[in-house]
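Structure catalogue
Derive tokens from sequence
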Amino acid sequence: MFRKLFVLLVFISLGQGAGSPVQAQPEASWGGPPIVDVSEGAGSVFVQIDLSETSLGFLFLAYSVQAGGTATAPDDFTGGEGFLSWQPGDNASQTIEIPLVDDALTEPTETLFLVISDADGPLISPTDSVLQINIVDNDGPGSL
């Protein structure tokens, strides 16, 4: 009996050792350019977040919409912050929606930033951590 227990423990230990395959940590990205132009009249900006591969565990990603530029909430956009999550075995794309406010003012292009951060899980490359969104006015000359 003691011998069988010892063999079992050695087997479990070997299965978890350095020779076991290690899964790479998935990367989260939006796969697009770091600057996006959108018409004020578009209604919303949709940003698709993709994972590079399926994870074995739960993944959480935090995001926040920050004025930082010339766009201001709630005059030019609404929305603030939130989380995206993936269950084990899931790598489906997730979408962040930023509602835009279509006013009747003629104004210059305004800028806001979508910032994603590693809440618990996927790696985020520096080029995919901040997306600049330019809201192009639709009320005057040069509109989209």
